[in-house]
Amino acid sequence: MLDTSQGEAPAQTAEEPRGCLFALSQPPLMIFLTVVGGLILMAALHDLFLL
Known about the structure:
Elements: H1 20-24, H2 27-49
């Protein structure tokens, strides 16, 4: 038989794009957001109760 294939099948190098939920599942990002959120919360409580 005549081989009509053109070499190997193209490799899928492009990964599926990852969304926001994947980014939020990363521990360093969640630690950063927790620290920033805590600082904002402390500043808000300071403004509400001590000023």
